[in-house]
Amino acid sequence: MATEVMRARVPWPMRLLELLGSAVLLGVLAWLVNMIVKAGPKELEFPIWAAGLGLTVNVLASVVRARRYLGGAFRTELFLKIGLVLLGASVDFTRILSVGVRGVAQAAIMIAAVFLFTWWLGGRFQLDKKLRAVLSAAVAVCGVSAAIAATGAVLAKKEQLAYVTALVILVSLPLMVLMPLAARVLGMPPAWAGAWFGSNIDTTAAVVGAGTIYGEQAVQIASIVKLSQNAMMGVVAFALALYWVTREEGRAEARPGAGVIWQRFPKFVLGFLLASAVVSLGLLTRPQLADVNALRHWALTLAFISIGWEISLSEVRQAGWRPIAVYLVATLFNTTLALGIAWIFFGQG
Known about the structure:
- The chain has two domains: 2-79, no CATH class; 82-346, no CATH class.
- It has 18 helices and no strands.
- It has helices at residues 2-8, 12-39, 46-63, 76-87, 93-97, 101-124, 129-142, 144-154, 158-186, 190-200, 204-214, 216-231, 233-248, 258-264, 268-280, 286-310, 313-319, 322-346.
- It is globular, with a radius of gyration of 21 Å.
């Protein structure tokens, strides 16, 4: 509070100069992330590099006591919302419908079962409820995107989102390689294998990677199943916001009304659905879609740099090993259940 008062006393030309300096720093960091991703290992996705570089600069700026002068342009929430709205352009409902009700039914069953299991397991490990919500959404729905939506719905801390994001990406990478190998050992048909990959691996890029390793039909089914889960992110975000406001924060004698629920609901989900509708109706050309995807990449790069900049290492240390244990056990449950559910819907053909 005292810091905010001190900053308010700084003349506006100086604040403007600091904001411009911060914007330049953020732009340089985003450019560096892009260069590192192009030159580095292809298996490591850009959120890890972006958050890591942001954290590095965070530590260095704190050491030289310049951090409070450089943070004006690091707007995690703004960049996340822009990126998630643009992510909707990757969800084409016509592709989801191409496999009929099977993909949607599998996604709904998996999301409900895995979310409830992870939520229960997080309670057994005595995790903070907000962290439990973000973890559960990430494992059950669609990884980083769902974690972001859950963070907005329950007002979780940025440190919790960063923690879960790292877990999602680091666990998805070995699964991308190990699951196709396991599918070959089991002699799984491509459709069954693809549905298994799409239901279990938490990042879209790793899902596509696993499907590509296994074959053309596998990557098609894997992508569509993952898109089905992505499309349900809005439903999960609304349900989570409704539950959180009425059960976790509401009191029996004074239940929050619809206005409070609407206020908490992450509005960017509506933008996500609108972008998806535009793409599904064929209103964008391929070059336009490429431009949208490029903008989404830059927005999320800026968001994860900002997460690294704003993260508190002391709070991450306090989380300890328990979230890791919960995530790994939940992933094992997800893997096993997805194997059976994918066989029911896709194993026969």
